[in-house]
Design goal:
single chain; 335 residues; alpha/beta; four-stranded parallel beta sheet; 15 helices; globular
Length: 335
Amino acid sequence: MKIGITTTVPVEVIYAAGHIPVDLNNVFVSHPERERLIEEAELAGFPRSFCAWVKGIYGAAREMDDLGAVVAVTQGDCSNTHGLMETLQSEGMEVIPFAYPYERDYVLLRAQVEAFMRRLAVDWHEVEDTLRRLDRVRRRAHRLDELTWKEGLVTGLENHLVLVGCSDMEGDPDAYGRKLEDLLARVGERERDPGFPRAGDMVRLGYLGVPPMAPELYDYLETLGARVVYNEVQRQFSLPFRTADLVEKYRRYSYPYSIFYRLRDIRREARRRRLDGLIHYVQSFCFRQVEDIILRRSLSLPMLTLELDRSSRLDARTRMRLENFVSMLRREKHG
């Protein structure tokens, strides 16, 4: 059975139960008719002034005939998602609840994981075996992330796609692992290619916030001589934490918890990756727009806040803002 997810949850439980997790965000953003999915949600009654991501997820879920259930994150995601889940439930979809305790309490999180396991009828032995299997794949993603910022051999878009895919391993972790191996081999060849632009020579950017509605952002930045070498939330999807304890791994995962816990990760990675500036992506009508206030007050690096709504393309105004921001950073970097 395919089980939809709208944010990262312990997919080890789903795989251990013999089911296939499907990240509905990825289904939506890679869909060739994204605008139609949003419009179908609006025809069903979703307001126009509502998060386009949530409307797109609704359209994607409705279109999948083989989707058996959806995991509803009742704490650690957004209230818009709550409305989405209740709408899907009212239309007959099975909804499985899961919650991240706000204060990252280990005991409470373990209780949530065990409730999730009971719902899908698996035990700790099966889940931990699956964790070891998935961690072998994640290590390849972590190596590619390291090659992004340390060696400068992976583009910002490649980094984004590799890390986003870790949320559900594209439904087949073994095949996904082979895909990452192939990319690692191609990246290795770039070491001998003097024509491949290294990140060290470019303006080095960090990308904060949820994945963008318009992934072309990454390639456009490269044309300006800038590269994203830190994708904050996408990196969190890959669970880059050195622990064999599944509960602790999801306790260290920053996205569902407070902005202050996320800030610790952002500061550490900004220093380690020698960032020149930050782009904070905010989705129209998302409560996380308010977090921009705290990020600006707490981080010392120059920051551009970028808001997109439903378009998958960058408009002229957005391109101009990016160009001006990169130009300013280049002057500060090179004098």
